[in-house]
Amino acid sequence: MTTPTRHLRIHQYAGLQPGPRLLVTAAVHGNEVHGTHAMAGLMQKLDSGELVLERGTLTFVPIVNPLANQLNRREGDRNLNRNLRPPVIAHDYEDRIARVLCPLIAQHDGILDLHSFQGNGPAFAMVGPRNNTGELEPFTQEATESALAAALGVSRIVEGWLSTYALGLQRRQLRDHDGSRRTSLIIDPHYGVGTTEYMRSTGGWAITLECGQHLDPNGPEVARLAILRTLVFLGMVTADAVEPHRPAQPPEVLQLYEVIDREDMGDQFAREWASFDAIASGQTIGTRASGEAVLAPSEGRIVFPNVKSQPGTEWFYLARPSDRLLPHNGA
């Protein structure tokens, strides 16, 4: 039996001039390793002097969840990227990671969190809310996130995660529950908070980059270019470190507005969906174990369809066009 790693491997580079403090993370979900591979290559270049950090502090955490990574699955004991906060009492492996990860996040100005996804589909970035002073996710860094997301080289940007997740949580809290720790976690109002949401709660900015499907051979290159473009955007490396992103047209921006949970393992999709497949109003997306059809409430896109989701957790999300304005050219 494999002994779970009891430490986090953290690599830090300090430029000789003051500047931003950037945290880059990967394998928050253990089988999402495009960013892990990209960081390994960039660390070789930094160590050899081929890439020079001119200013600021760059921190790499190539494997945030070592247990899940060793098991080659999404989670160790639970989903690290939900309900992320320093625990008063550590109940599981992910709680012990959070004790180290949360203070590390708070020491930085921003985070680029590198992920991948189960279904097919192109790479995309996720950003936080608009500037606001509300209770759910107060925020002041909309301009930074919008400009950086536009510079990363993806053709699609998605917003609205936490507000959409909160709607799903409200429905979960109305159901009957078995009193288990798993159930108590998925109905906790904090359950939508992961790495990026925690960073925003400390006053920083955050980008999630979904680098493609888990086994997409181009995923590490998507991650590598994103890291370099972020460093250039922040002025931490020289502009010639990477070819800038010069899109023919601005990225498409979508707003998440609904999340639908799987209720039973007998719930089945009507077809093999990929993220951002178009859906028409009233179209059948799937069928419940009871035979009830799950219909699209309006025209839009399906996001994160997950045939492996467990009952009581997210089955898929719905998105529609956003009116968010982005810069017309990248960094």
UniProtKB/TrEMBL annotation:
<keyword id="KW-0479">Metal-binding</keyword>
<keyword id="KW-0378">Hydrolase</keyword>
<dbReference type="InterPro" id="IPR053138">
    <property type="entry name" value="N-alpha-Ac-DABA_deacetylase"/>
</dbReference>
<keyword id="KW-0862">Zinc</keyword>
<dbReference type="Pfam" id="PF24827">
    <property type="entry name" value="AstE_AspA_cat"/>
</dbReference>
<feature type="domain" description="Succinylglutamate desuccinylase/Aspartoacylase catalytic">
    <location>
        <begin position="18"/>
        <end position="116"/>
    </location>
</feature>
<protein>
    <submittedName>
        <fullName>Succinylglutamate desuccinylase/aspartoacylase family protein</fullName>
    </submittedName>
</protein>
<dbReference type="InterPro" id="IPR055438">
    <property type="entry name" value="AstE_AspA_cat"/>
</dbReference>
